[in-house]
User: Fold this.
Amino acid sequence: MEVTVTVNGVEYRRETEPRRLLVDFIRTDLGLTGTHIGCDTTSCGACTVLLDGVPVKSCTMFAVQANGHELTTVEGLRRDGELSPVQAAFKEHHGLQCGFCTPGMMLVATALLGANPDPTEDEVRWALSGNICRCTGYANIVKAIQSAAATMHEGVRA
Amino acid sequence: MYPPAFDYAVPRSLDEALDLLAEVGDEGRVLAGGQSLIPMMKLRLAAPAHLVDINEISELSYIREVNGHLAIGALTRHADVVRSEIVGAGCSTMASAAPWVADPLVRNRGTVCGSVAHCDPEGDWNSVMLALGAEVVARSRTGERVIPISDFVVDFFTNALEPGEMVTELRVPRDDERSGGCYLKLERKIGDYATVGVAAHLRLDERGRIGRAGLALTSVAPVNLEVEEAERMMAGQEPSEELFAEAAEIAARTCQPQSDVRGPAEYKRAVVRAYTRRALHQALATARGER
Ligand SMILES: Cc1cc2nc3c(=O)[nH]c(=O)nc-3n(C[C@H](O)[C@H](O)[C@H](O)COP(=O)(O)OP(=O)(O)OC[C@H]3O[C@@H](n4cnc5c(N)ncnc54)[C@H](O)[C@@H]3O)c2cc1C
Ligand code: FES
Ligand code: FES
Assistant:
């Protein structure tokens, strides 16, 4: 089947089998390897992408289902060559160690701050609860996201 | 992990979907949120030859209030229920269950009707629907059936649909000023299925007695278990601590928990007893407008 998807603002057209998983389509067919495969069983969130702005697990969708839709992967977070506020805050606050969960974490954070610009710690933790991190203990991830929220407010004021 | 090859169709309207389902018969499956079906296909526990993907049928995504009930469309996702003001105001039992179904990412894809159709005894929604006495609307090219949830849930992963039929809507009784309910779920971590789940719903009569009681359990039997003996026992009675304790005893006695990674059977039975009492008290408080 032919699939047309817009990924990070760029339109791609590819021939694919219906059983092709979205995560492999992104990583192998499009060569965007920032999206990770952790568990392959819908449990960890390492494969998170935004589908029309909504975080979903790309190991649990077929690529054909993205036909006509817009995807954002971690490669699409950067703006004009600069780290996005969420990316900069993860760097600043040590929101990552090995980095395996980080693309998923940052995409969930980006979607959260789009919907709720000033989340409480509880709201941040609740939003992240489908994404597993084996390194950080989450504390610095939460800190980074709250700091990104603050930076984005300043940006609006400036 | 990859499923075996299958044919894929993505209808744009319900009529088109029903035509496709009629063509493929029992070789076909509806693909809704895919949050149970795709994992099962990847593990090759399911190998449908044809998938009919309903995700582009936007007319099936709705939560509406119609004549004393809430109508939930086949494409309504768990996350839509979490956010819904109509559910928040009109169905305390669904509202208390929704945030505990799976995790936020799974809730963004998985659908309520898909869960109901799946008939996984560890799924939360069928307990809620049994306690509420909901109805399932099933359509095929030849017509529509409205099936009480207690007839729809046939067995372990088995529903009452015929080949060519799909669930198009759930009809859930709306809370009125004398009814309310709740869902209590014990889980090891977010995104885990219930160790035990209890759905309770009470409708009081004008004198404050129990008119109708609904009680159903998750993860402690081969199906979501409606505790009919306790429901009958409570009907017509004055609500009280003793009554709820007796209902909890019946629930603990009726359930058939298995020892597994989530705990030994006797532990689960004890949780059923404690949670049933707690859920009935909470349902009563909601029905009385105290919470
Ligand atoms: C990590 C994880 C954790 C989870 N935790 C929970 C949990 O705690 N509680 C819980 O209840 N569930 C849980 N689930 C399951 C989740 O809620 C699924 O979304 C749900 O069971 C199925 O809904 P779906 O829309 O994804 O259906 P699908 O996966 O698309 O379909 C499931 C089955 O139902 C059939 N079907 C779907 N829609 C229809 C329809 N309209 N008409 C006829 N047949 C239909 C399909 O053909 C298939 O056989 C979890 C899933 C995952 C991956
Ligand atoms: S790889 Fe998709 S959830 Fe783990
Ligand atoms: S930083 Fe290693 S898994 Fe999160």
